[in-house]
Write a structure and sequence with these properties.
Layout lengths: L1 H15 L7 E13 L3 E12 L5 E12 L2 E6 L4 E3 L3 E12 H4 L5 H10 L1 E14 L2 E14 L3
Antiparallel strand pairs: 1-2, 2-6, 3-4, 3-5, 3-7, 7-8
């Protein structure tokens, strides 16, 4: 009898919660160099969303590639992020790039230009996947921004 009541209660609870639509991807914001030293350069960004649904879900990055001055430097891999219900939220996208790969032969011209102009062209390109019970959606990410280098 207790199991039947639990099943009915669970069904009623889940039937009141619904996925009306996918969370809205607002954009990629705050792209910046958050840390730089002689070993790595850490570039961060925030992927901002609004979830109008009564239930959450999970977001995961799907091989987002990071380009610096049009040269692929890293692939962003991260853990799944919990999506809060009925909330505006953002998830951090962080990548550490070895300093020596930025100074490699294939990007030396771009690096010299960046040092002269004190600007760096950073591009995030790939997918973020939203998953919830029986529903999934991919958001295409392709954002390029020129960020200022602090010397």
């Amino acid at each position: 009898m207790k199991k039947l009541i639990l099943v009915i209660f669970s069904f009623l609870t889940l039937s009141n919660c619904s996925v009306k639509e996918k969370p809205e991807f607002i954009g990629l914001e705050n792209i910046k160099i958050s840390d730089a030293n002689n070993i790595t350069v850490q570039i961060t960004a925030d992927a901002t969303f609004n979830n109008p649904n009564d239930i959450g879900g999970k977001l995961s990055t799907e091989s987002i590639k990071v380009y610096v001055n049009d040269v692929e430097m890293a692939t962003l891999l991260s853990d799944e992020f919990k999506v809060p219900a009925k909330e505006h939220f953002s998830i951090p996208l962080e990548v550490k790039i070895p300093t020596d790969s930025i100074i490699s032969n294939k990007s030396i011209a771009g690096l010299l230009g960046s040092l002269l102009t004190q600007k760096l062209k950073v591009q995030y390109k790939g997918d973020i996947k939203y998953k919830v019970i029986g529903f999934s959606h991919k958001y295409k990410i392709d954002k390029t921004e020129t960020i200022k280098i602090k010397l």
